[in-house]
Design goal:
Blueprint: H1 14-29, H2 37-50, H3 53-76, H4 100-115, H5 121-134, H6 137-167, H7 169-200
Subcellular location: Chromosome; Nucleus
Keywords: Chromosome, DNA-binding, Nucleus, Repeat
InterPro entries: HMG_box_dom, HMG_box_dom_sf, HMG_boxA_CS, HMGB
Length: about 200
């Protein structure tokens, strides 16, 4: 899919502003000279490393201003039909609790790795899935109970988070994004469970 020409220009870092300034200075001093980009970038990088925080401050201020510009423009930007905007995920939103299986994995992963040091991440996960499916209900119960307690706490936290969001409109928008992320996580976990069942068969 082609790039949307109406999409706001991405924000620039302080280092990007510094390189841009170096290019402009070089053009003024040597208007006819061609630039070896790799060599020029290396020189800029070396110069940037030796600069004091005070010298870098000018470029950091420019980057901060550009970030504000970008965020303001993105608020009014409507992506073309068929494109999704990247959702804002609030770092303060309650984190979804792990399932009983994930708690089981946290306990037994070190043991599996110790017994089979050469196993890849995927094979380790498969081995843990087999161990979980082969466990009795009695063995699973402590993990189920712990997961239920964590879920109960999460439910209370998310209600408090959403209630706070009703007062603060920006938090409300973030809570909606958190809800969508939660639904996606549940779908992904459901897919994982189906994969484990397929392995058993």
């Amino acid at each position: 899919m082609g790039k949307d020409p109406k999409k706001p220009r991405g924000k620039m870092s302080s280092y990007a502003y510094f390189v841009q300034t170096c290019r402009e200075e070089h053009k003024k001093k040597h208007p006819e000279a061609s630039v070896n980009f790799a060599e020029f970038s290396k020189k800029c990088s070396e110069r940037w490393k030796t600069m004091s925080p005070k010298e870098k401050g000018k470029f950091e201020d420019m980057a901060k201003q550009d970030k504000l510009r970008y965020e303001a423009e993105m608020k009014n930007y409507i992506p073309p039909k068929g494109q999704k905007m990247k959702r804002f995920k609030d770092p303060n939103a309650p984190k979804r609790p792990p399932s009983a299986f994930f708690l089981f994995c946290a306990d037994f992963r070190p043991k599996v790795k110790g017994e089979h040091p050469g196993l890849s991440i995927g094979d380790t996960a498969k081995k843990l899935g087999e161990m979980w499916n082969g466990s009795s209900m009695e063995d699973k119960q402590p993990y189920e109970k712990k997961a239920a307690k964590l879920k109960e706490k999460y439910d209370k936290d998310i209600v408090a988070y959403r209630t706070k969001g009703k007062v603060d409109s920006s938090s409300a928008a973030a809570a909606a994004a958190a809800d969508e992320d939660e639904e996606e996580d549940e779908e992904e976990e459901g897919d994982d469970d189906e994969d484990e069942e397929d392995d058993d068969e």
